[in-house]
Write a structure and sequence with these properties.
mainly alpha
């Protein structure tokens, strides 16, 4: 398995999370919470499972996988709090959860960039 497969699975979860933001902006908090439960959480779980099962042949690859797993596990841990905040229509808790997701996304971007650059620092990872 390649790291790009893990990245693709994580991007699927991120894409689903963006749909939640759209529902939230439209003040459809209950629909956003349902989308988290029906789409984002399962996609995140699938990405985590895929990454855990990945047999990567180099120390560099294993280190990048661990970085991605850290990000995905943190995202997964925050999602139930986000659901609770949305269902409670608690704006402060929603904002705190969104901020946490933004921080997690920043870490995901750094991890993804390291994978894209590759072990030599100049070429895409294989």
């Amino acid at each position: 398995m390649q790291l790009s497969t893990i990245l693709a699975a994580d991007l699927k979860a991120e894409h689903a999370l963006k749909g939640v933001g759209e529902k939230e902006k439209a003040q459809k908090d209950d629909e956003a919470a349902t989308l988290l439960e029906s789409s984002v959480i399962p996609a995140t779980d699938a990405a985590i499972s895929l990454a855990r099962g990945a047999d990567l042949g180099t120390d560099w690859g294993r280190a990048r996988r661990e970085e991605m797993l850290s990000v995905m596990n943190d995202r997964r841990a925050e999602l139930p709090r986000y659901v609770t905040a949305l269902r409670a229509h608690d704006m402060e808790a929603q904002l705190a959860s969104v901020q946490k997701q933004i921080d997690i996304e920043r870490r995901a971007m750094v991890a993804a960039a390291a994978i894209q650059i590759g072990p030599s620092g100049t070429e895409p990872a294989r």
